[in-house]
Structure formats: C-alpha cells, structure tokens
Design a protein that fits this description.
With 477 residues, the protein is α/β, with parallel strands linked by helices. The chain folds into two domains: 207 residues, no CATH class; 256 residues, Nitrilase/N-carbamoyl-D-aminoacid amidohydrolase. The protein is built from 16 helices and eleven strands. The strands form two sheets. The protein has a six-stranded mixed beta sheet. Strands 6-7-8-9-10 form a five-stranded mixed beta sheet, covered by helices on one side. It is globular, with a radius of gyration of 24 Å. 43% of the residues are buried.
C-alpha cells in the first residue's frame, strides 16, 4: 500500500482519480472472480442484473480508495499530524463504507498476532488504522527525503507507534498465557468436523465411504472421539442448501441422532428448518444441539442472512428473485457444560455488533460454522479466516470454526490458531483440541466502537477546517 500512497505525491486530480481506481480494482478483485459470481447469480433474474450486482460488489471496495486519493492533498502538510490526518480519514472511509465481505487492510497482518492485539480496545478500526498509518508514514518519509528535519520527525513518530503496538501486543499475549498457566478461566474439549460435501453429493459423504475421499465425515468424527474421549461437543458445519432442503434432511437428522446415541456425545449441527404453513416453502437456517440421547436440544435460527444468496435485503423496494430463507429473531446464547456458546453461522461472523451483543449476554466461546461450497479454495476463504481471528481478539473469546469447504480451525482468545488445528479447504477431516476460555473479556466488549466514533469526529472536524480554508482562499479580497 505504501507504493500506492507514494504514487499520489504531486499527482494531478485526474491522475489521483485513475491511480485510486486502479489500486482499488487490484485491491478488491479476488484471484478467482467466479467465487463472487456464484452468489450474485440467480435463475430468477437476468444476466444484466447479475452483472450490475457484480459491479456493485467491487465498487464498494474501490470507492473509499478513490475518495482518499482525491482528498489526500488537502490532508497533507508539513505538520507532524499530517500522517495522522491521512490515516484517520482513510480508516473512516474504509470502516464506514458498506461492503459485502469485511475484507480490509487488517487482513494483511492476520498472521502477525503482535500487531492486532490492539483490536481488544479499538476493534477492527484500530487494526485498519495501524496498517494504514505505517504505510502512509513510509510513503511520507520517502517523498520528503530532501527535508531531513521533517523526515526525521516522521521516522521517530513511526518508530514510537510501532513500539507501542508491539509492546501492547506482547503484553496482552503474555497476559493470556499467564491466565492459562494459573487456570484463570475454564477449558472445553471440542471436536470440529469438516464434511467436504460436494454439490449434489448429498448424504453419502456423511455416512459411508465414497469415491471422493476414503472416509466419510461420520467415520472421521468417530476416529476423533476415539483419540479424545473427553470431548463432549462435536461441531458439524453449516450444511449445503441442496442437502437439507430436500427429503434427505430427515435422513440427515436420523443419522445424527443415531450417531449421538451410539457415542453418547452432544452434536452441534446445522440444517434447513422448514417453516410450517409457508407457501412457497420457506426455511430457517438453523443450528441446533443433538443431545447424547438422540433428542433435539436448544436451537438458534440465523438472523443475519447472506445478502442476495440467502435473501433479498431490499425485498420491499425491489421484490426480485425467490429466496427460501427467512431470518430468525432471537439472539440466542446456548448453554453447554458451563460454557455459553455463541452460534455464528457463516456471514454473521462478519458483524462485530452481532458478536458483541452475544458476549454482553454472557457468551464466552464462538461456534462459527460455514458452508463455503461456492468459494472452494478461493482466496476469499482465507480472508474470512483472517477476519474471524479479529473477532476472537476483540472480546478475548476462543473460536471453534467448522466448515464444509473452507478453513476449519481452533482459534485461541489471542487470535492465534492452535498448532495443528488448521484444516485446509477441500479436505474431509475431524480435529479435536482443547480451548481455554479466559475469565475476563476485553475492553472492546464494554466500549464498543468508541475508537471508530472518535476517529470519525476527528475526521469531520479536520474536513470542515479544510473546506473552510479552501473557501477562504477562493473568496475575493
């Protein structure tokens, strides 16, 4: 990102617009655009409309970058606050602009835990700011290399900022490790299953050997139980729509019940729950417990449906297409063996507010399940994993992540993936690990998006002063 910011130095208005557009497209386009094309296409609307949705998807990522490119000269000065002004404004532009997936510059440092521990007080906002501040600082230092005094000032500020971020990260990680040592919390043993159900493959992937891989998902789960009999909760991922919207749904529930009784374990699973009396048929995207006696336990109905794929968010304005899912309404936290499970189905983990509300209700471990059949091994699956790590740090809660086709993982409350637990896409497996649940939540749980609101206020004040200055200069004497 530093080369992009550097390229804007002394560029004309037209050049900055083109550079912002170019970088925005490179920043937003995934390696396989077909991964986005699948959700935005629907047999009930035209190819033209699908293309418009595709363009809208990418423009949401491009526009904030173009806006920053155009405004940057007005935020740049020889003041020591120059980089701060630019970083805060750019952060707000990205944070406030609505996007389909919350892919942000914060994803760039997902494998560097030291640098994103600040999410536990500033949320995603401060992590985005960290990445932008560092890159803008580097660009300013290079572009002002002739002004030794200004360059030295910026270098000192950058080093001081990095020292703060790293020192805070080291302190919080060490604090978490100390909590584990003195057992200041509780632990839970969980098995997470990655089913790898292919399109139209159906129930056979769960219950018997098949041609795609040697063992079925149930066989993998039984093997994990044998290796770790202490694990009492077995998490199955979000089920593909073509599995649980058909008659095989009843066979699926029957097989789950038989498996739970046979192994005397509690299962956490997902299925399409048909709404009685709905015509045409409508469903809830439901996650539910199957108890050791084979009976159904507590359930959660997905509230935040995936736009365009599961529902039409503007149905009242544009009633286009046919969607089979309806959103749930209850903000559920499921109690299990002393732990409070936070159900998050696929897209719901993209919402910081959704997770925070449930942590405030007492939730202390996130059970994140996803299908990702449409994305396969695309880079989007990696972005999703990177984003979910920040949810763990924001509240200091661990995450069990179980996917049908995606990156399954056990994530600690400090955002680190438990060694050996990362399960790559397109691989059927079942992993069992212990996760530590700290007794105390993060400051972000209490203060929420205070950092974002503070940055926004700062940006608006700065923007107003810039506008006034421009008008004063253009006014006649």
């Amino acid at each position: 990102m530093a080369p992009f910011v550097l390229s804007l130095h002394k560029a004309s208005l037209a050049e900055r617009f083109c550079l912002g557009l170019l970088y925005g497209c490179l920043y937003s386009l995934p390696s396989q655009w077909m991964a986005i094309w699948v959700p935005v296409t629907n047999k009930h609307w035209s190819f033209t409309f699908s293309c418009l949705l595709m363009a809208l998807f990418f423009s949401c990522y491009v526009i904030p970058i173009v806006i920053f490119s155009l405004v940057k000269p007005f935020l740049t000065s020889k003041s020591v606050f120059s980089v701060l002004n630019q970083g805060v404004f750019f952060t707000c532009a990205i944070a406030w602009f609505p996007t389909y997936f919350s892919v942000t510059p914060a994803c760039m440092i997902h494998d560097q835990p030291l640098f994103y521990q600040t999410a536990d007080f500033g949320g995603l906002t401060f992590v985005i700011f960290t990445v932008l501040f560092v890159n803008i600082s580097i660009a300013e230092i290079i572009s002002n290399y002739k002004d030794r005094r200004f360059m030295l000032q910026q270098m000192i500020i950058l080093i001081a900022f990095l020292v703060f971020v790293v020192a805070y990260g080291y302190y919080r990680i060490e604090q978490f490790e100390h909590q584990k040592e003195i057992n200041d919390g509780e632990s839970i043993e969980v098995i997470a299953v990655q089913t790898k159900i292919q399109p139209k493959e159906g129930i056979k992937s769960l219950v018997r050997q098949n041609t795609h891989q040697k063992y079925s998902a149930f066989e993998w789960a039984a093997y994990a139980i044998k290796n770790n009999p202490k694990a009492n909760l077995i998490v199955f991922p979000e089920s593909p729509i073509d599995l649980t919207q058909t008659a095989s749904r009843y066979e699926y529930l029957k097989k789950l019940s038989e498996f739970a009784k046979k192994h005397e374990k509690t299962l956490y699973f997902n299925y399409a729950e048909q709404i009685e009396g709905a015509s045409p048929p409508k469903y809830y995207n439901t996650s539910q417990l199957m108890m050791p006696d084979g009976k159904l336990g507590e359930k959660y109905r997905k509230i935040i449906l995936t736009p365009v794929y599961e529902n039409n968010p503007v149905e009242n304005i544009f009633p286009i297409g046919t969607f089979y899912y309806k959103p749930g309404v209850e903000e559920t936290v499921i109690q299990f063996n002393g732990a409070n499970l936070i159900p998050a189905v696929c897209y719901e983990a993209h919402s910081p507010g959704f997770i925070r509300n449930r942590v405030l209700k007492g939730g202390d471990i996130i059970i994140h399940t996803g299908n990702f059949q449409a994305f396969g091994t695309d880079v989007i699956a990696c972005f999703d994993l990177a984003m979910v790590k920040l949810r763990a740090v924001e509240h200091r809660v661990p995450i069990v992540r179980s996917c049908n086709m995606g990156y399954g993982a056990f994530i600690e409350a400090d955002g680190k993936i438990v060694h050996g637990s990362l399960n790559p896409p397109a691989q059927r497996n079942a992993e069992s690990f212990s996760l530590f649940i700290p007794s105390r939540r993060a400051p972000y749980t209490a203060i929420g998006n205070l950092c974002l609101y503070s940055f926004t206020t700062f940006s608006l004040i700065k923007l107003w002063s810039v506008i006034r200055e421009v008008f004063q200069k253009s006014a006649p004497d």
